[in-house]
Design brief:
The structure holds 2 protein chains of 2 kinds. By secondary structure, chain A is an alpha+beta fold. Chain A is built from 11 helices and 6 strands. Chain A has a 6-stranded mixed sheet. In chain A, a hairpin with a 5-residue loop joins strand 3 (179-187) and strand 4. In chain A, helix 6 (156-174) crosses helix 7 (211-223), helix 6 (156-174) crosses helix 8 (228-239) and helix 7 (211-223) crosses helix 11. The radius of gyration of chain A is 23 Å and the shape is globular. By secondary structure, chain B is α+β, with helices and mostly antiparallel strands. In chain B, strand 12 and strand 13 form a beta hairpin. Classes of the chains: A alpha+beta, B alpha+beta. Chains A and B meet through helix 1, helix 4, helix 6, strand 3 and helix 8 of A and helix 1, helix 4 and helix 10 of B.
């Protein structure tokens, strides 16, 4: 933070530019690959190009246009003490730690913290989106996605309960030689969050009809309250989401202080989960997991779909 | 993580939004140079400390438990030290463990059981609560020693496990690792043929095969039930006595044929695909976990390719930018402990990158790691273990200890002994454990783009022919 820019050269930036392009290829399977395209299709619906959290494909030429002076400006602006949070979780006492922090970080100077943009979530879907995706990928998938409340927002904790519940009931109903895995997640972040159900099928399985099973369970969640015993049965699993290791605690403290202005403890996290009721779960299912406004991606293999694959997107009924 | 990992993506996004970036301000560095503190010495971490593990042994198996109020989940794990060591056809032990885990879920009426197997052991693991713990122990005893799993239960799991394996095979790096292991074990390395062999082998795993595997691999004499979390101890002990206290028939261990690796010069596989990158996997036998020098070997692996600061990444990534990252790690399957080094390159870079990879590999036998680097690696290994011990990894650490026949307290002493390891010690281990004659290289990709290359082996190790 203090002295990086002293020794940073244009050559070092050029090297890292190539590393980043390699990273893009590796993370996405390929710059032009169908796996990357498939994961982008849903995100592009939630965060279209004009959205501040657009997560579309990063143009190679944009990375290649980065120069040393851009890195210098960015570092000066964002890597400043006023914009940094250090969280220490340790068995050492505060009296032992503070002199160390002062010694190694106290001298660092920099600009004021940059203005923080307001937290913006994914766009609300105006209608149902259906994406049919054909590609060389052998494994078919059915992925249903909704924009969802941000981490700590109303409904976020309830969606963790819903994810655990749906995973259980959908696994029980669907796991078979045709459906290999069921994943249900509330992917919550302080910014854009989404709730997702993903079924992975055996090759050549037609996945579309499984939406009926998903809808049956969603309808139950939206119209009937879970029994108290069912909610109690979910609590141990959900409580397990609260990180209690030293690293987990430190990460949460730094993240919440820097983004929300106050650090959150493991105890506060558990209280948040324990306060969730059956009625709140039903209300959240009704308000977030609409059967009408969601993105359904049906991905299957086709020898005819070369390269990135072929997507057909339809909106509305 | 490097200093640029987040910087460049954020900046490229800014550029993508077409916003003009301002010029940097002067002075470039705001902190006065004379304020710079001396670089601190590496502050040695304390060696990891294991929690107190209590235990008892009954005819039905051993019980280890850690009553820890800081652990948020109550976890029950069954570990057997009879793993996928080659005594059974490939994949049968994993399939059996998965059948037992899913049967356990069904019996208990809730999900989240997991299973696995490697060369040294196999496990089932499930979350529980104090209220459910007696029922969980009863269900485990029944699943391990009760009526055999039904054919109707096994068939869908068998299909699913096979599909998952085939799905994993779509990943070119995991397919290349399978091919490398095939070569090391003297089998024909062909990615598609390898999967055909798995498929036909799996079809033969019927209820009888799974039951025979269950009875022998999970035999009472070689299994431990591990319970961690905030435990109501007395009811748990009572339940364990009730369900594991009765006599069991002794079941001798099926012995596997020892792993004797073959030493081919190279294997290069052409797999034109929709992936534009080429994938390189280097594999060689590694010492087993119980070997005296295993932890020193792990330290070498960490320093060679365990982090972005490692020797391989210092050259392949930071100097030449051939790759986002190279990764060296250990794995154990089918009775073989193997060191894998893997990376992805653009096809035109493969030849130079492999040349460099070989150079770095040879260097561990000739250039000692600095004492500073060794100290950092020691801290890293200790910190990783401490993190597992404090988090949800505690049952698996105890399972690892069980597999190699060590009490957790002796494992603690073993890790503590890393305190005395020096760069010269690692050089000595490298000279013994990285002999130039061992290893196999698998390159997967489109050879029309990669071009031809020939690997030579000399007294110094592997080279590309000039």
């Amino acid at each position: 933070m203090a002295f990086l820019l002293e020794g940073l050269s244009a050559e070092a930036v050029a090297t890292q530019r190539r590393v980043v392009l390699n990273e893009e290829d590796e993370r996405s399977g390929s710059r032009d690959g169908p796996a990357a395209r498939m994961s982008r299709l849903t995100l592009e619906e939630l965060y279209p190009e004009e959205h501040p959290l657009w997560r579309g494909r990063r143009a190679e030429e944009d990375v290649e246009a980065l120069e040393l002076r851009h890195i210098q400006w960015f570092h000066q602006t964002h890597y400043t003490p006023a914009n940094a949070t250090v969280a220490v979780v340790s068995s050492r006492t505060k009296e032992e730690l503070l002199p160390l922090i002062e010694r190694y970080l106290g001298h660092v100077q920099g600009e004021e913290a940059p203005a923080r943009e307001a937290l913006v979530g994914p766009r609300a879907l105006p209608e149902k989106v259906h994406i049919e995706f054909r590609s060389a990928l052998r494994t078919p998938r059915l992925i249903v996605t909704w924009p969802s409340p941000a981490l700590y927002a109303e409904g976020d904790a309830e969606l963790d309960y819903i994810a655990v519940h749906l995973r259980r009931v959908l696994r029980e109903a669907l796991l078979s030689p045709d459906v290999m895995s069921v994943r249900v997640r509330q992917q919550s972040h302080l910014r854009g969050s989404q709730f997702q159900i993903e079924l992975v099928g055996a090759r050549d399985t037609v996945m579309g009809p499984f939406i009926e099973t998903i809808d049956r369970e969603l309808t139950r969640l939206r119209t009937e309250r879970l029994e108290e015993a069912e909610v109690e049965g979910l609590r141990p699993t959900v409580r397990g989401f609260v990180a209690r290791s030293a690293l987990g605690r430190a990460g949460r403290l730094a993240r919440t202080f820097s983004m929300l202005g106050e650090p959150r403890s493991a105890e506060q996290e558990q209280e948040r989960y324990d306060a969730v009721s059956a009625e709140a779960i039903r209300e959240t299912a009704r308000s977030v997991l609409s059967l009408e406004r969601r993105i359904v991606l049906d991905a299957y293999h086709s020898d005819a779909a070369l390269g990135e694959g072929l997507a057909r997107i339809s909106r509305g009924d | 993580m490097t200093r640029f990992q987040w910087l460049l993506p954020a900046l490229s996004l800014a550029l993508a939004c077409r916003s003009a970036l301002p010029e940097p301000r002067s002075p470039l560095v705001a902190t006065p140079a004379d304020a710079r503190p001396a670089v601190p010495e590496v502050d040695p971490l304390a060696a990891p400390t294991f929690p107190t593990v209590r235990g008892l042994t009954r005819p039905g198996g051993t019980l280890w438990f850690v009553d820890d109020h800081d652990v948020s989940k109550l976890v029950v794990r069954v570990q057997t030290r009879r793993g996928d060591d080659g005594a059974y056809p490939v994949g049968l032990v994993s399939l059996t463990a998965q059948v037992l885990a899913e049967t356990l879920e069904d019996r208990l009426g809730h999900g989240s059981a997991s299973s696995g197997a490697d060369s040294h052991g196999a496990f089932l693991q499930i979350r529980s609560t104090n209220a459910d713990l007696p029922a969980t122990l009863e269900a485990i005893a029944s699943v391990l020693d009760g009526p055999p799993p039904e054919a109707a239960v096994i068939a869908p799991i068998r299909s699913r496990v096979l599909e998952l394996l085939e799905h994993a095979n779509e990943n070119p790096l995991s397919a290349s690792r399978v091919a490398a292991l095939d070569e090391l074990k003297g089998r024909e390395a062909d990615i598609q043929e390898g999967m055909r062999r798995w498929r036909s082998s799996f079809r033969g795993y019927d209820a009888d095969a799974v039951d025979a595997c269950r009875r022998e691999r999970f035999a009472a004499s070689d299994r431990v039930v591990i319970v961690t979390g905030e435990i109501d101890v007395a009811p748990m002990l009572e339940a364990f006595d009730a369900h594991f206290g009765g006599a069991r028939e002794p079941i001798p261990r099926e012995e596997a044929t020892p792993f004797r690796e073959r030493m081919p010069e190279h294997a290069a596989l052409s797999r034109p695909e929709y992936y534009p990158q080429a994938y390189v996997v280097f594999a060689r036998p590694a010492p087993p976990p119980a070997a005296e020098d295993r932890l020193a070997y792990e330290m070498i692996v960490d320093l060679l390719g365990g982090t972005f600061g490692s020797r391989l990444n210092g050259s392949l990534r930071e100097t030449h930018s051939y790759t986002y990252g190279a990764h060296a790690f250990l794995s154990a399957s089918e009775g073989a402990d193997v060191l894998y080094i893997q990376s992805a390159f653009h096809p035109p870079d493969v030849e130079d990158a492999v040349r460099d990879l070989f150079a770095q590999l040879r260097s561990v036998r000739t250039e000692a790691f600095s004492e500073q680097a060794v100290a950092v690696a020691r801290n890293r290994i200790w910190a990783r273990l401490q993190r597992r011990l404090e988090g949800s990894g505690l049952p698996s650490v105890l399972g690892d200890a069980w597999d190699i026949g060590r009490a957790p307290s002796t494992l603690e002493r073993r890790y503590r002994a890393l305190e005395d390891v020096t760069g010269a010690d690692l050089l000595e281990v490298a000279r013994t454990r990285f002999p130039p004659r061992h290893g196999i290289l698998v390159i997967t990709g489109d050879f029309r783009k990669i071009g031809g290359l020939t690997v030579q082996r000399t007294a110094e190790g592997f080279h590309l022919r000039d």
